[in-house]
Amino acid sequence: MSRPLASPWLAAPLLATPLLVQATQYLSVEQAQRVLFPTATAYSPAVLEITPEQLKTIEQASGTRVVNRKPRAWRAQAGDTLLGHVFVDQVYGKHELITYALGITADGQVAGVEILDYRETHGDQVRLPRWRAQFLGKDADDAVKLGRDIQNISGATLSCRHLTDGVRRLLATHRALLAGAP
Questions:
Q1: Is the pTM of this model over 0.70?
Q2: N or C: which terminus of the chain has fewer CB atoms within 10 Å of its end residue's CB?
Q3: Residue 5 belongs to a domain
Q4: Is the pLDDT of residue 160 over 90?
Q5: How does pLDDT run across 117-143, given as a tens digit for each residue?
């Protein structure tokens, strides 16, 4: 015979306990800049604002919606030579935001993808170097599509999909705003 709880109020906190989210900061923006462009001698903010015309171009080219019309970006330079740009962006995993940095060379190719903050309880396999390496050398002319030229990771599908979409959107943003810029 089972015994009833002494008080139903003892069980109430268990029912109201929220699910814990595993939030981990892996890199700061400054650390990501050094990883993506290690030979750079300076990183300076690039003040960007997407015009309505550029917004249409980016959304059409990337097939994704632009949420932030003022992307966060830095110029990576070695002396007077522009090496490329570092973008810091956020996409949703399943429920929480993933903060990542994307390095794009001066000629528009992906130099690397780094995960800065990961807040989900599952799917952090997107941090694996082998998965992120699939983006290296891609540019705005490449498909950059999950299941096409970027492989999925079972158990991390939404994180993979949204990061892939984010990279494609930032490549289109780079082309629309910075291609050919000094």
A1: yes
A2: N
A3: no
A4: yes
A5: 988 877 788 999 999 999 999 999 999
| Residue in the structure block whose two tokens are 């891609």 | 138
Report the distance separating Cα 26 and Cα 173, nearest Å: 25
Exposure string for 14-25, b = 16+ CB within 10 A, e = fewer: eeeeeeeeeeee
Four-residue CA torsion sign, 81, 181, 111, 73:
positive
Indicate whether 16 belongs to any domain. Answer: no
pLDDT band at 62 (very low <50, low <70, confident <90, very high): very high
Q: Is residue 4 part of a domain?
A: no
The secondary structure of the chain as a DSSP string is -PPPPS-HHHHHHHHHPPPP---EE---HHHHHHHHSTT-SEEEEEE----HHHHHHHHHHHSS----SS-EEEEEEETTEEEEEEEEEEEESSSSEEEEEEEEETTS-EEEEEEEEE--SS-GGGG-HHHHGGGTT--TTS---BTTTB---TT-HHHHHHHHHHHHHHHHHHHHHTTT--
Instruction: Give the Cα separation of 146 and 29 in Å (integer).
Output: 26
The string of pLDDT tens digits covering residues 29-56 is 999 999 999 999 999 999 999 999 999 9
The answer to whether residue 17 sits within a structural domain is no
> For the chain, what is the domain count?
1
